[in-house]
Amino acid sequence: MAFKSNRRKFLRNSLLTGLGAGLTPLAFAEKSPELPDPKAPDNPDVEDTTAPASGTISLLQTTDVHCQIHPHDELFWENEQMVFRQTAGYAQLATLFDKIRKKNPNTFIVDTGDMFQGSELSVKTTGKAILPILNALGYDLYLPGNWEVVYYKKNMQTLLGGLDAPKVCANMFHDAGDGKKGELIFPPYFTWSKLGVKIGFLGYTDPLVPLRQSPNYSKGIIYTKPEENLAYYVNVLREQEQCDFVIILAHLGLSQQISLANMPECEGVNYIFGGDTHERVRTPIQCKYAKVVEPGAFGSFVGRLDLKVENGKITGEHYELVEVDARKHKPKRDVQKLIDQIEAPYTTAINKVIGYSKVPLYRYFVVENTIDTLIIDALFWKAGTEIALSNGFRFCPPRSTPGPDGLIPITEGFMFDMLPVDAQVRTAKATGAQLKNWLEKELNNVFAKDAGKRFGGWVVKFKGMEVTFNAFGEAGKRVQSVTVGGQPLDPARTYTIAACERDGDPPTMLCRIPDVTDGKNTPYTLHTVLRDYLAQHSPVSPQPHGYAKALDAPATLLSQVTGVEYVFR
Question: Would you say residue 62 lies in a domain?
């Protein structure tokens, strides 16, 4: 078999060059990736010992639901314009899952992360309220996302440990002290057999979590790049476990997942079921070694891969992105009852209206959007600094449905959807040169030509500063012009800035700008700022101001993914 021969050659070469640590367990025991115990409770690999048969295996995926338990507005890009439709909550997803399972018992359902961050209910209960809801849906396998650490390591372990189904992740290790890797926190892989076909699932989450998010969230965890042990585990799944089909469950972002699928370490992988960037892949992206898919976010979509099996052999496949239309999928009664019971103590607070918007609120466009315009408008108003900054977050479904008065209500719950982490507002000073360098780095995080160097977020948001740039220009030379207060940026001048504090950052760091001076925490938080702003300015109309303008891309840019046949819609 050509694959096995090539794989053995690659593994041997990797070992000699130090890239394949742990490939010979006896000689390199201290470096060997932790293997799961097939008999261990945390890794109850499901085996179907029946004789080879014919039929269809259905593999379903959700990702980045971000605790959106109810039906919600969703944005679609159709005929070069925004269209909003109501899509599912968890009770509707439960109905869809049951329908598919009933029609095809050979169904396996996975979620690839960001399950416990994104709503007031989750924040108020430290994620615990979401546990029974997830368990009620009967998922078969989970991968932790980048936001699973939002309540810190111990709570992450407790939450994921409370899930009824197994978890996999091959690149999250306990910190054994002094930066040394301990054991894997979760088993690296899982296998499942049906109709005589054995499928291996291998998990990888974003190794950039300590840089992308507050450093203290992931304290006690060491992340590694997938390619450090990917070849090893693909070899284990293909040759030791004798898997017929290998899927990587990934929470890396579409760009990085495409990059991984083009690496030789990925040889032997059939699919990457991705997450993190909320992209909607409707046709699998064929890369050099594997196909890549990603099924949107918020429970609005389910990715479905059907494998046709004849006499124990896979003979065909079909992939589709299923829109979970809230009008077409009625809520499953017992799941809806469970959701209502869990949420009841918090309903009054969640539904409290704190303001109104004249325009739909959404967060899908890469450069500017209405949600972040609202946030930076409020922060700039409150802080009184020359510049206000906000992170390039992706989470939060749209809110576009008006009330009887034609205005769109902004509730406490929606404020938590927009800003689940109520960070303290911090002010500091930075020179024009620092701001210019920071802008170049942040833009490279979004648009780097090397997809593996792109962070998971979008362009940072700002007010008080106007920037023109070439999104797809040369690294370090993207920024074309910067003005502050209508005047050209002065490299030598010091400017005052406001942004949210990141837990674990040193006093000299603000919004990933290093070496800032005169850093001070204000007495107010992001939520305080937003409530105060809406109290005085509601109804708001936060249309993007054009403070950030890409010269080589439209204002309606919906994805930073390039070089492949993919369109967000």
Answer: yes
In this prediction, residue 179 carries a pLDDT of 84
What value does the mean pLDDT take over residues 157-164?
Answer: 98
Residue 486's domain is classified under what CATH number? 3.90.780.10
Q: Are residues 379 and 312 in the same domain?
A: no
| Tokens at 91, concatenated | 């009770």
- Note the pLDDT of residue 46: 56
Which residue's structure tokens are 């291998």? 202
157 and 299: one domain? Answer: yes
Residues 296 and 242 in one domain: yes
Same domain, 304 and 389: no
pLDDT of 22 above 60: no
Six token digits for residue 533: 């702003």
DSSP code string of 14-53: HHHTTSSTTSSTTTTGGGPPPPP-TTSTT---B---SPP-
Quick one: which H or E segment has residue 381?
Answer: helix 370-383
Q: How many CB atoms lie within 10 A of CB 487?
A: 9
3-state secondary structure 406-425: CCEEEEHHHHHHHCCCCCEE
The reply to whether 265 and 368 lie within a common domain is no
Separate counts of helices (H) and strands (E) for the chain = 14, 27
Identify each DSSP E strand in 448-561 by its residue range.
Answer: 461-463, 465-469, 479-484, 487-488, 494-500, 517-525, 548-550
| DSSP 8-class letter at 475 | T
Q: What is the average pLDDT score of the chain?
A: 91
Residues 284 and 325 in one domain: yes
Do residues 232 and 23 touch, judged by C-beta distance below 8 A?
yes
- Alpha carbon of 85 to those of 119, 163, 323, 398, 525: distances in Å? 20, 31, 10, 10, 33
pLDDT digits (tens, 9 = 90+) for 54-95: 999 999 999 999 999 999 999 999 999 999 999 999 999 999
Structure-token pair, residue 412: 């406490």
> Is the separation of the CB atoms in 489 and 482 below 8 Å?
yes
Each residue of 353-377: pLDDT tens digit? 999 999 999 999 999 999 999 999 9
Structural domain for 527, as ranges? 352-550
DSSP assignment of 167-203 equals B--SSEEEE-STT-EEEESS-SEEEEEETTEEEEEEE
Domain total for the chain? 2
Q: What is this structure's pTM?
A: 0.90
How far is the C-alpha of 388 from the C-alpha of 380, rounded, in Å?
5
Q: Which residues pair with 231 in a beta bridge?
A: none
What's the gap between Cα 39 and its chain centre? 31
- CATH, residue 218: 3.60.21.10
Q: Which residue has the higher pLDDT, 36 or 139?
A: 139
Burial of 29 (0-12, 13-18, 19+ CB in 10 A): exposed
* Lowest-pLDDT range of 16-25, 300-309, 316-325, 544-553: 16-25
